[in-house]
Amino acid sequence: MARRLRVLVDMDGVLADFEAGLLRGFRRRFPEEPHVPLEQRRGFLAREQYRALRPDLAVGGAGSPHGQGRLAPFPGPYPGTRGTEVFICTSPLLKYDHCVGEKYRWVEQHLGPQFVERIILTRDKTVVLGDLLIDDKDTIRGDEETPRWEHILFTCCHNRHLVLPPTKRRLLSWSDNWREILDSKRGAAQRE
């Protein structure tokens, strides 16, 4: 029997629209302050761009009570085919008081209780075993210099301007042909 393909899917910015939620929360808290429109976002950490506007403004929302729960899901369908194991591999915020529980609630509400059992919370995704990692962060670093998984960059407002090297693949959205990426990786995994 062939080994099942293991796909790790990030949550914020891939399944949940973290950037739009962050902007909504910021505009609600600071309606008179300048903000960075989504189409002008650059770089993974929003606080770096906001500090350039005004250093004393805190960018937040997902770390506050109900912040994570307010995030809208990106339109699916999400990966899930026979011969594929899908896990949600997500990093909680450093100020995790509300974040962890709300991640679980979000997954249960938007993906169903069966996916609650498939959540992997980690600060270091490089140590998690998988064949593919679909993530909006363009550079993933950790203890493992060469993780076992192939990183597929999920297009988000903060990374859409990046030009990828020919060896790196991008998923434009969940409407893009993610099945083709899974099938190509499945073929490579079966040859190993």
- Cα-to-Cα separation, first versus last residue: 14 Å
What is the highest CATH level, the class of the largest domain?
A: Alpha Beta
Broad shape: globular
| CATH topology term of the largest domain | Rossmann fold
Tell me the helix content: 25-40%
Structural class: alpha/beta
Order of helices and strands: EHHEHHEEEEH
Count of discrete structural domains: 2
Strand order of the largest sheet: 3-2-1-4-5-6
Instruction: Output the radius of gyration.
Output: 17 Å
CATH superfamily of the largest domain: HAD superfamily/HAD-like
Q: Overall mean pLDDT score?
A: 86
Strand content: 5-15%
Protein name: 5', 3'-nucleotidase, cytosolic
Active site: 10 (nucleophile), 12 (proton donor)
GO biological process, one term: deoxyribonucleotide catabolic process
Pfam families: NT5C
Task: Annotate the secondary structure layout.
Blueprint lengths: L4 E5 L8 H12 L16 H8 L30 E7 L8 H13 L1 H4 L2 E3 L10 E4 L14 E5 L14 E3 L6 H14 L1
Parallel strand pairs: 1-2, 1-4, 2-3, 4-5, 5-6
Would you give an account of this structure?
About 25% of the residues lie in helices and about 15% in strands. The protein is α/β, with parallel strands linked by helices and about 190 residues long. The model is unreliable at about 60-65 (pLDDT under 50). It folds into two domains: about 5-15 and about 70-190, 3-Layer(aba) Sandwich (Rossmann fold), CATH 3.40.50.1000; about 20-55, Deoxyribonucleotidase, domain 2 (Ribonucleotide Reductase Protein R1, domain 1), CATH 1.10.40. The chain is built from five helices and six strands, in the order E-H-H-E-H-H-E-E-E-E-H. It holds the Pfam family NT5C. One of its GO terms (molecular function) is 5'-nucleotidase activity. This is 5', 3'-nucleotidase, cytosolic.
